[in-house]
């Protein structure tokens, strides 16, 4: 007997299923990372099994690649298809201006590369991800070159962050790109995401931040009242 899904997972699945319906014949599709994106991948695999033909899918992480490949989704990459018709991914926080914090799953760099290569970036999430201001629930992940972690930590602290190096099994978590992640908590929240993003990018050794600004075309939220689409 399978155990019943939590309401949050049911809402994630609703959003993932709705986003899979946006995929059309002949598209090149970017696939996000995380539990909500996994529902999308499963729903898309089902549509392909039923006859939908896409040019190919590009994964934002090794984990997503493995899942999609195991479900017989035809995989491609940005060298073969430098432009994506659509990129669909989850988020950790979504503010009213569709600015995001992403990267709790550690895939923020590839996710941002795919989002920026896409004609359309669709965010899928359960309703708990909607916030009025970024930075109150999730820390902001910053991907860094490992040897620069200590000077970067110092400079992030000067920007007001409480910084923790992300750990996995008591050793630093290594991203798919062989970097570290510094998780930055801003106790007052993030009042100006664009300014903070620019300040963090100016620190040498920073590879990317989990702030996604001016990138989102559409947000699909699953919640107790069903699916809501915002654009
Ligand atoms: C991974 C991400 C994910 O999209 C984000 O963490 C949301 O995950 P989930 O769908 O499991 O709640 O940014 O780097």
Automatic annotation (TrEMBL):
Gene behind the chain: rpiA
Keywords, in A-Z order: Isomerase
GO molecular function, one term: isomerase activity
Residues at which substrate binds: 33-36, 89-92, 102-105, 129
Family annotation (CDD domains): RPI_A (cd01398)
Family: Belongs to the ribose 5-phosphate isomerase family.
Protein name: Ribose-5-phosphate isomerase A
Function: Catalyzes the reversible conversion of ribose-5-phosphate to ribulose 5-phosphate.
KW Nucleus (keyword) present: no
Keyword Isomerase on entry: yes
InterPro entries associated with the record: NagB/RpiA_transferase-like, Ribose5P_isomerase_typA_subgr, Ribose5P_isomerase_type_A
Catalytic machinery residues: 111 (proton acceptor)
Top-tier EC class: isomerase
Reactions performed catalytically: aldehydo-D-ribose 5-phosphate = D-ribulose 5-phosphate
PANTHER family: RIBOSE-5-PHOSPHATE ISOMERASE
Pfam families: Rib_5-P_isom_A
Quaternary organization: Homodimer.
Pathway where it operates: Carbohydrate degradation; pentose phosphate pathway; D-ribose 5-phosphate from D-ribulose 5-phosphate (non-oxidative stage): step 1/1
Organism superkingdom: Bacteria
The enzyme's E.C. designation: 5.3.1.6
């Amino acid at each position: 007997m399978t155990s019943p899904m939590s309401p949050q997972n049911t809402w994630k699945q609703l959003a993932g299923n709705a986003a899979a319906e946006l995929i059309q014949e002949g598209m090149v599709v970017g696939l996000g990372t995380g539990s909500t994106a996994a529902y999308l991948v499963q729903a898309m695999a089902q549509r392909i099994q039923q006859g939908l033909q896409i040019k190919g899918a590009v994964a934002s992480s090794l984990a997503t690649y493995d899942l999609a490949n195991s479900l017989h989704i035809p995989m491609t990459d940005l060298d073969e298809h430098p432009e994506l018709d659509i990129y669909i991914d989850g988020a950790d926080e979504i503010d009213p201006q569709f600015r995001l914090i992403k990267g709790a799953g550690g895939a923020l760099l590839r996710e941002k590369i795919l989002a920026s290569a896409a004609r359309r970036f669709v965010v899928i999430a359960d309703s708990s991800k909607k916030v009025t201001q970024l930075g109150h629930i999730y820390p902001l992940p910053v991907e860094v070159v490992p040897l620069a972690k200590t000077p970067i930590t110092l400079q992030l602290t000067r920007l007001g962050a409480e910084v923790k190096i992300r750990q996995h099994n008591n050793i630093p978590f290594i991203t798919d790109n062989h970097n570290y992640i510094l998780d930055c908590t801003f106790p007052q929240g993030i009042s100006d995401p664009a300014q903070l993003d620019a300040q963090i990018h100016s620190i040498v050794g920073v590879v990317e931040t989990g702030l996604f600004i001016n990138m989102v075309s559409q947000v699909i939220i699953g919640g107790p009242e069903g699916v809501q689409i915002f654009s």
